[in-house]
Amino acid sequence: LVGLSAMLETAWGLASGLVDFGVSDALGLGQAYAFQRESLFWAKKGYRLDVFSFCVSMLTSIREDAKTTHSTYSTRLDSLMMIHTLLLGIGLSILQYNRAFWPVDNPDAESHLQWYDQ
Fold first, then answer.
1. What is the Cα–Cα distance from 14 to 2, expressed in whole angstroms?
2. Could you tell me whether strands 113-115 and 103-105 are parallel, antiparallel, or unpaired per DSSP bridges?
3. Do residues 105 and 115 touch, judged by C-beta distance below 8 A?
4. What is the DSSP string of 1-43?
5. Which of 1, 8, 36, 93 is the least buried, fewest Cβ under 10 Å from its Cβ?
6. Strand locations in the chain (E)
7. pLDDT digit string (tens) for 7-64?
8. Is 114:101 a contact under the CB 8 Å cutoff?
C-alpha cells in the first residue's frame, strides 16, 4: 500500500505541474526555440565566413611568398647573365677574337657561309 501511495503522489505532482504550465510558458519555450535556431544560424554563418577569410589570407600569403621568391630568383638570374656577358667580352678580348673570325652569309658563294677577309 505504501508503493501505491507513492505512485499516486508522483502522478498528482506531474498532473499539477502540467496544469501550472500555461500559455505564457508555451510562448516562452517557442520564443527560446526560435532564438536558439537564429543564434545557430548566425554562428554557422560566422564560422563559414571565418573559414573563408582564413583561406583568402592563406592564398594572399602564398601569393606574396611566390612573388618574392620569383623576384629574388629573377634578380639573381639577371645578375648572373650580366656577369657572364662581361666575362665573355673580357675573355674574347683577351683571346683577341676580332671580326675576322665571324662568319658571314654570302648568297653569291656556293656554301653561303664565308669568313671575313682581312
1. 19
2. antiparallel
3. no
4. -HHHHHHHHHHHHHHHHHHH--HHHHHHHHHHHHHHHHHHHHH
5. 1
6. 103-105, 113-115
7. 777 776 666 655 556 667 778 888 888 999 999 999 999 999 999 999 999 999 999 9
8. no
